[in-house]
Amino acid sequence: MEFKKVLAVVLSVFGLDVLPKKDGKSILTEDMKKQLQEKWGEKFVSTFEKDLAEFEKKGNDQGADSETADLKRKFEDMKTKFEQSEKDKSDLQVKFDKLLKDPEADNAEEIPVGNAGKRPAFKADMSYMHNKVLDNYFNGDASMMYSTDETIETSELQKEFGKYISSERIDILRRLTNDLTCTDYMTTIVTDKTEWRASQAIIDSVLQQFTPFWTPSKGTKFTPITIKNFFLKVNVPIKPADIIEDYIGYLYDENLSPEQMPIVKYIVNELVLPKLSEDLEDAMATGKFIEAKPTKDGEDASPAGDSMDGFVTILKKLKSEGKEIGAWLLPDVAKLTRANILEKVENAVDSVASKYKKKKMFIHADPDIILLYNRAYQDKYPNTKNVDKDNMQVDFTKFTWAPVDGMQGSGAFFLTPKENFKHLMSKNHREAKIYMQVQNYDVKVFMEFRKGTGFAMQEAIFAYLPEEAAGENEEGI
To answer: What's the CA gap between 439 and 278, in Å, rounded?
Structure first.
């Protein structure tokens, strides 16, 4: 294949007009090599560096070559169209790969965008031995089936994993938010910063009497809270031979074929992500960040709850530090019981500032507290039937109970407008890494991403913490 086309693809990947130079020669930096290796492997990098040297040895100047610049613009136009539609990611990758391998691939052929509004789904490569063996098994031929002493060819599994992640990365990252109950009630901030802090107050009003002067409306005086965007990871070791029986059982239960649910998709969607969502649910509510001590490869991981500060933990810190918020609800109530909860919840909602009583807000709560409230309500009004089990609005208010799984056992509840309840995540999807390594008969699944949670300002929080939670100091949280 003509080297100029390959050079144009590489320049397009890094958004460069020319590659960096050292001692008058064009080079790839170590970071650039690493990124290209992740995309196309070590062989591509070594071949590219060799061809680049030959290209310049013949007197060619990448910066002055108009043909390369034109090709680069074509690729960038293709990428722009693709990124706007977000519908053909896997197809675009296939076309790029084909262009790198096939000299005729660029001849008057247009890379399609759209595909009738649907993004092509990942398709298993049934030529890989593990897919072929399992497919034959489900078609009645068990002669090739793995025994307990055999294992999957991990190098093929790694290749297929990379293709699956390339196709489904965005959907996987969305699941890190959409599978959580707490993020339904939050507003998301996408940021590259490791810390986020509200820069201006929520505007109270915009209407004013006319005067022929510029008299800007001012927001409420407020106390912002710094929210940290924690860097998190997943390191999961898996021995494919150990999960074959579970995998086959799953296919039987769900009436799926290996082609519909390849083992790489099963590993991500059924083994890793559900547990990760469960851990995140708890960490984002009650986690308390404890910086990990220096470790070595193979040492035990730190507990999931040590990875970040959750919003209940943030409330505990504000309470223990004597910070003022909108209101600390029920300050004289050590614990809610079936006998007192109806009266105390009425007192709590009455304590919310007037301007917030007009807003529809959720009472984010330990599910046990909501159960206690519903049972007490049924005790007092036994003839009142809740025909809509999802309608948990407190009588004569605009406040609705919202159970948060991660708050289970905390005994706490709080109210705050959705715009004040924040969820932080990485702006750059490429920063979030998902990949697999192989070692002997094992595979290692890696994920790296950012998450954070908290509140924009103190004055819009109305919270109840039971005595055991409110009384703990920072070390005891």
So the answer is: 28
